[in-house]
Queue: 2 jobs
Job 1
Amino acid sequence: MPAASTQETAIRIRNLDFAYNGTPILEDVILEIMARDSLCIVGPNGGGKTTLLKLILGLLKPNRGEIEVLGQTPEKSRLRIGYVPQYARYDPQFPVTVLDVVLMGRLDRIFCGAYAKADHEAAQAALAEMDLTDLAGRLFAEISGGQRQRVLIARALAAEGELLILDEPTANIDAASEEHLFEILAKLNERLTVMLVTHDVGFASKFFKSIVCVNRQVVLHPTSELTGELIRNMYGGDIRMIRHDHRCSPEGHCNHGIS
Amino acid sequence: MEFLNALTDPAIPFLRYAFAAGILASLSFGIIGTYVVARRITYIAGAIAHCVLGGIGAGLYCEHKLGITWFGPLSGAIVAALLAAIIIGLVSLHANQREDTAIGALWAIGMAIGLLFIAKTPGYIEPMSYLFGNILLISEFDLWMVLVLDALVVGIATLFYHKFLAVCFDEEYARLRGVRTDLYYLLLLCLTALTVVLLVRVVGIVMVIALLTLPAAVASNFAKGLWQMMVLATLFCIAFIGSGLAISYNNDLPSGPTIIVIAGLVYLGATGLRQFSSRKN
């Protein structure tokens, strides 16, 4: 992997269209995310946030256009992404320990049999970084929501990727856990590109360098631009109103024609 | 004690065979039952089990009508179980909706085919013994078959433990870690199919599903983690089969239903106890 391309661009999307059963979900998306950026993907429910995420992860294929993640196709770069799904979607009765969940981040490194020593070391290091060492032997179902969230981040870190993607991490966790989460993300952002999907923009400007608004179309704004009017427009359902008033600096904005 | 004497009595080898088959099969039942319960695919496992009757019927027909001696009911059962596992697995992976309807249909079609074959097989064949088990039918050859299938299931399930765990717990994440999740899901269903065949002789195809899921369900009340659940489920399965065979022998009862009733009572007791203690807390 040439170092230069990962240094510059983490994600590059060109002229992407995606439709599901004939209904357009995303149209003419152009997006460029720099490495070490921290960005927040916001937008109303059904606006296409999750679809954009799945396209970046290579779980969905675009109808038109291309996506490059860490300089490769999404399928090829998949193993270099640390993905953190919503913890609430797990079966609350599934009998699995915290350590076993974190070790799943190393699943690509074994074909059969047991994990190697290096895999256990990476899992333990990730648990320590998330302050979870004491919980390693506990059942995933027994611990609190905030702790489960951190276990899933530890699993993503154990994979040793360069890009951390979190899906709705602030859903269903309390305010103290949310604050703790952003402290963790700020620290991780020193070495990783951090990308987060949320429908809750209240906190967004505290941590994020850029905001990506998704509602069929995708527009990137630097955080400094996030005003009350922008938020109102975004949730008012018509994203084009936001696009009327861009006054973005060239390095923080990615618009049609610039890419 | 009467039962222990009977186990060593050379005049009644079938009891010894049934006991040995039960102990051996408990390993597969504990391991695969845990996956089935944890992944919540009891219904799919039930459908596979019932489709086995189609294979048994075809096997009997081949053996008695066509004179193909090497393809009997047990070989038919194995083929039908694997075929059912793959078809049902593909339906469950690719059917976007009404998966349960399609699986329910396959469940019934499998049984219907079996009964049609049995009806056209010369001589009187009692479908009851296949549906509900009959330990008198167990031969030494069956015991060897159980040993081979058991080794295969336990070997594969242990070798790919971490893959199966990840596919059951979080299929999407496993796929993102480069695991071919569809293949492992189908492989798991095939192992479930082979496991079901192991004890068809002892408890029959209708009740085998209870023996697959109840030990694991009881174990889930006590286990910390998946492999602990597997070990406990195996021990419970041995206890259910052992005590069931003993009680049925001493009281002259059919063995399959006795085993299932014991498993069911322990399950209800454990679940009730757990409800009671959690309400107390």
Job 2
Amino acid sequence: MAEKKEIISLKLYKSGMVVTVNEKPSYKEVKEALCAKFKESKDFFAGVKKLGFKGVPLTNKEYERLVKKVSDILEDSVELWENPEDNEKTEDKDKENINAQQILDRAFVEAEEKNTKFYKKTLRSGQCLESDGSVVLIGDVNPGAEVIAKGNIFVMGSVRGMVHAGKDGDKEAFVAALKLSPTQLRIADLITIPPEGDDKDYLSPEAAYIKEDKIFIEEFLQKRK
Amino acid sequence: MAKSQAQVIVITSGKGGVGKTTTTANIGVGLALLGKKVVLIDTDIGLRNLDVVLGLENRIVYDLVDAVTGHCKLKQALIKDKRYDGLFLLPAAQTKDKDAVTVEQMEKLCNDLKKDFDFIIIDCPAGIEQGFKNAIAGADKAIVVTTPEVSAVRDADRIIGLLDANEITDHFLLINRIRTDMVKRGEMMNVDDVLDILNIELIGIVPDDENVIVSTNKGEPAVVNMKSLAGQGYRNITKRLSGENVPLMELDGGGFFARLFGKFKRK
């Protein structure tokens, strides 16, 4: 898929948002692209307190004007984030310590981008659900049934069959289900099977995702203490 | 008797050997004993068994293929069971194969029979090919037979999916050959385990019972044997089919026979 490279790309971190300026454009173009992005998903970006820049450099004055623009759109005070790269490195390291909670958070960010579709049915043996986006399935995936998606798979029910998220190699894809005991679970090009004797007869919501090139399965509901 | 609410029920399972034919024979005889007018259709062309289980093998002159292709009149092909009032059998052909009948012919056959019977019970062959398609063609309800084994449950699941795809959504589950001793030891799936996966309405359970083999060999379905546990299971199912509300047979606690005799004393 040849996608036109956008003038800017955004990346959200815990401490703020980093804008990467991809090409050498005029200040005006950057401003328009940035305003458009923020206006489009105002609600989603609400809460961003710091705005950093990297890539093609602009002048400090221009940075400050951009930050001002963004705070106007968000109707909130946003400050310039100096040297976002340093923080980025530490947060990228955090990625190695990523947990199911953060994985699931990602689903919201990606819901539109990954073309999430909803289905309400129980997949029985021999039935296959294929999607070129993410899938939310309300029902069970029985043994012998398959769900294959380019994006994420979320099953509001029990998974006993085969599920494959990120079929085209998306390693950030995940599988989440109210009960995860698949015959086989695949994410991108990794394949795993649940350990033997792991057959629970109660619901325990779990998510499977890739970390350090391995598939991890973890309960995603935080335990109350 | 009003014949308007004739029910066409297909007995199917996907997997072979789980007891479709035995179930068909027992439900048929059971319904006849309740005073219903019943016809059993064996669609397992080339591997017919239902006539043997019913002990009617030597009375076959014409069969299903003759009837749908017009080689004989439908009435000529129907074999009346002299032991049970109101029970008829339409046997399968043994020397042809599944392609000898089409889906359209089966639909027409079922519609023709609806006028004269309360229940039309279709014995489906194993598999999901032409024979299965023929068997479900005219049906508006299905009883899916399974045993508490993963392979049988898997195939039942597949069958339910195919029934749904063919718009037969009125389907019920019959769990056959349950062995209480094994369930208790955790060596066999219990009713809940099966229902958990298949998630359709349960019409009844039938415990494993040696009497079934004996009665099959004799050509006399277990449902008429008051001492047979499987017979009791089938009697409950036929009552439910005719609209009665019967509680599920209890399989645990106390010996089978203790409870069975208890039942007789009450009667």
